[in-house]
Specification:
The protein contains 21 helices and eleven strands. The radius of gyration is 27 Å and the shape is globular. It is 54% helix and 9% strand. The two termini are 31 Å apart. The protein has three domains: 214 residues, 3-Layer(aba) Sandwich (Rossmann fold); 106 residues, no CATH class; 134 residues.
């Protein structure tokens, strides 16, 4: 199905029955991204929906505001790839192409869905308007402009793609005026954009962005506009599509305030911010190191040219510090060692210890608690899913008893942490091949069985904990 296929339109006002059929609960009012600005806050999912709207209604371009590095470009690229699939075209980003491939794409645009990523701050007036044809002016008595390459491409009637005007507020005043005209009438140097071209712009927002130009009412009125506000769980789904390291995703989930967005405490002059862009860059660097050490495990030799220390933790720390800063990477390496040192049998032993023992499970720190949660959501749920498929009642009973032991070994203060993390884990840390629907079914069976164990052992406190845990998991399943 083509995204541009028209949907059936009602001949008259839509029946209230349709609203009743598809309306859900109480109305959730749009949230302002900033108290002093009339701009809505958009999630990643909301931006994807707005991109789809801009794709269908190409007369109304989209403007996405957001902090630097929050993932505006990644969301746009993800949508462009989806559009390419639905149009049965091959996706191509012009910026990523070498000269020969670039020429091929420009010569045969009908075969591709093309992403034109134009950094407005790097465009000079000629690149946004065209190059003056001086000889023509001398001969004809008036001046015309020769279009730049990107204008030639997007004005080809066979062109289908997305024109992304990134960092719009970093453009010079003249370039910004040229782009305003383009956004308004889809024309540059007399060349009109293909009817299959979608125009999307992005801009940083906030006083911390130096060298920027404020977008006035004339520019703003041309766009549907909102502010991308990062949500850790929505970001995870995008991060997985971009192949971000599972370790980095897990660490971000362990403590989103510090590990996903640093809430400003690491921002400022000469400080590396913690944001989705840098997390993705760090992931690429980490995966390259992992690949070299994997190869060394087979050959016995690390690449000499890379000057590795021979300690994979140390090399990852050295590499990632440039992307995410010393403090973040230091905590990440400590957490990584904790995850790798995790022993399920030891956790079970600790859970069974008496209240006064200092090694009791409730004494575990946040990082180790998250390692426990990660193990439960991934390994324990995976074991239970296998046992369910094999109708292995003995193994299922064993897993329920182990989970009873763990939940019983956690303090009342810590159960809140576990409830929150387990509800997130259902959504973000499921075993490979297990859908969220099946994961919720497995968890409901596990919780019911564990509750029955607590009833049999007359453990009222744990029964209350499991009720609270089940409620949170059900909310997570509904997306609340």
């Amino acid at each position: 199905m083509n995204l541009r296929e028209e949907t059936e339109k009602p001949d008259s006002e839509l029946s209230p029955d349709i609203y009743k059929q598809f309306g859900r609960g109480e109305q959730k009012l749009p949230i302002k991204a900033f108290p002093d600005k009339n701009l809505p806050a958009w999630s990643y999912k909301a931006v994807s929906m707005k991109l789809s709207e801009a794709y269908h209604n190409r007369k109304r371009p989209l403007l996405i505001f957001g902090a630097a590095g929050i993932g505006k470009s990644q969301v746009v690229e993800a949508f462009a790839r989806k559009a390419a699939i639905l149009e049965h075209r091959e996706f191509k980003s012009i910026d990523d192409l070498q000269d020969e491939e670039r020429k091929k794409v420009i010569a045969n645009p009908e075969e591709y869905y093309i992403l034109l990523d134009l950094r407005a701050g790097e465009l000079n007036p000629e690149q946004s308007q065209g190059i003056p044809d001086v000889e023509f002016g001398k001969k004809e008595g008036y001046l015309r402009f020769l279009p730049p390459d990107w204008v030639k491409l997007m004005s080809n009637p066979k062109f289908s793609g997305l024109i992304f005007l990134d960092e719009l507020n970093r453009a010079s005043e003249m370039t910004l005026n040229n782009l305003l005209k383009f956004v308004l009438d889809r024309t540059i140097s007399g060349h009109r954009a293909s009817e299959h071209a979608t125009i999307v712009a992005a801009s940083n927002l906030g006083p911390q962005f130096v060298g920027t130009t404020a977008l006035d009412d004339a520019m703003m009125s041309r766009f549907t506009a909102g502010v991308l506000v990062a949500d850790i769980h929505e970001w995870v789904s995008f991060a997985r599509k971009f192949g971000v390291s599972k370790y980095i995703i897990d660490f971000a989930l362990a403590n989103p305030a510090d590990n996903f967005l640093a809430d400003g405490k690491n921002s400022g002059d000469h400080n590396q911010p913690i944001n989705p862009r840098n997390l993705i860059a760090a992931s690429h660097a980490m995966k390259a190191i992992e690949q070299d050490y994997l190869q060394a495990s087979r050959t016995g030799h690390l690449p000499e040219i890379k000057e590795y220390s021979g300690d994979i933790y140390q090399d990852i720390q050295t590499s990632l510090s440039g992307d995410l800063g010393i403090e973040w990477v230091g905590r990440f390496i400590e957490w990584l060692r904790t995850v790798h040192a995790f022993q399920w049998d030891d956790i079970l032993r600790r859970a069974e210890l008496k209240q006064g023992d200092k090694e009791r499970l409730s004494e575990l720190g946040t990082d180790k608690s998250w390692a426990l949660v990660r193990y439960i959501t991934d390994k324990v749920l995976g074991r239970y899913d296998v046992a369910r498929k094999q109708n292995d009642e003995k193994e299922k009973a064993k897993i329920k008893l182990e989970l009873y032991t763990i939940l019983n070994g956690i303090s009342n203060d810590q159960i809140g942490f576990l409830i929150k993390r387990l509800s997130h884990g259902i959504r973000d840390a499921r075993p490979p091949g297990v859908t969220i629907v099946q994961a919720n079914l497995d968890w409901n069976q596990l919780m019911t069985g564990t509750f029955d164990v607590a009833v049999a052992k007359k453990n009222q406190s744990l029964q209350d904990k499991i009720r609270a845990l089940t409620t949170e998991l059900q909310k997570a399943a509904r997306g609340e």
